[in-house]
Each structure stands twice: as structure tokens, then as C-alpha cells.
Amino acid sequence: MIGVLSLQGAISEHAHVLNQIGVKSKPILNRDDLNGIDGLIIPGGESTAIKKLMAYNHLFPAIKQLIQDGLPTFGTCAGMVLLSQPDSFDMLPATVVRNGFGRQQQSFEADLTFKALAKPFHAVFIRAPYLKNVADNVKVLASIEDKVVAVAKDHVLATAFHPELTGDVRLHEYFIDHFVH
Ligand code: GLN
Questions:
Q1: Residue 173 burial by CB count (10 A; 0-12/13-18/19+): exposed, middle or buried?
Q2: All domains of the chain, ordered by start, with CATH?
Q3: Which of the residues are catalytic?
Q4: What is the pTM of this model?
Q5: Which of 33, 91, 120, 125 is the most buried (most CB within 10 A)?
Q6: Residues 68-75, mean pLDDT to the nearest whole number
Q7: Residue 77 Cα: closest atom of ligand 1
Q8: Which residue has its alpha carbon closest to ligand 1 atom 5?
Q9: What are the tens digits of pLDDT across the range 9-53?
């Protein structure tokens, strides 16, 4: 059972992809919803809004504790921001640059090569962040020039783009196969 943090942003799309690959999910709206989950997805949206709503719903400390204790977690876009920021979950030693691709490229698409995937992944970036100054213990999975856009560290996976929007289920499968199981 995978929890999808369901406060703001691209929520139902993640549940849809999980359903497509035969994985059960449930929305996380309050602390009780966290019981019994084997993994967590933190979707894209607006990281500041998600952070405020997590505080309001008393979710932030509970989720932070679970992630620190090893809950497999996949953050996309704003989810990557929250996993990186020192004053949020602080799980990825790296500097996150919000809206890092600037005004001209608020949204764009790119084909990214992942070692773990046989064919490139067509990635949709929407006001996306990127990571820089990535510590050695963080595995870089994909970059655009010097901007790091997909990483893994221990039980945490994060992408700067939205893998739930393109109908390509491979990164969700990768999360389930390599992080949850
Ligand atoms: N720019 C947003 C933020 O920093 C993230 C955008 C997204 O999730 N598509 O929260």
C-alpha cells in the first residue's frame, strides 16, 4: 500500500499510474492515513503550499519521522524540493534551486537517459527545480547539462520532473521494485 500525499498538486495522476501497475494506493490527508503504508509519494505542485498544509494538518513531523526511519519515498518536482530543503524533510544533501530553469523555460520536455531504463524517459518539467552541490552519497540518476534532475539516496527517490503525466510507468515501477520491495 503506497500513500500519496494528497494536499495539493498532481495527486490523482500518481494514484492512476500506481493502479496501472497493479499497486494499491491511498490518499494521505491526515496522520491516521499514514498507518500501514509501505511507501510514500510526494507529488508535484507548490512546495510552499504543501508545506503549509502539512503543518496545518499536523502531518509534517509524522511524515518526517517516517522518512527518517526508512519509509521508501518518491518525491516529484515540489516533492523533490521538500525532500531536499534543510527546513523540510532534509533527506537529500544537495542544494535545491526552485524554479531553476527560469522564466523562459517555465515548462519544457526532454528525453532523459537513465542507466536503469532501456530507453530514454520522456520527462515533463513544470516550473521545475534542479539540484546542485550534490553530496557523494547521493546517486545522480539523470541530469540536464550540470543540472541534476533525478537522484536516489538510500530509500529516497526524487525527480525534478513529473513522471506521472506522460503515461510512462517505468519510474513508478522502478520505485516499487527497487525501493519498496
Ligand atoms: N516550483 C514549484 C515549487 O518550488 C514546483 C513545481 C512543480 O511541482 N511542478 O514548489
A1: middle
A2: 2-180 (3.40.50.880)
A3: 77, 162, 164
A4: 0.97
A5: 125
A6: 98
A7: 8
A8: 78
A9: 999 999 999 999 999 999 999 999 999 999 999 999 999 999 999
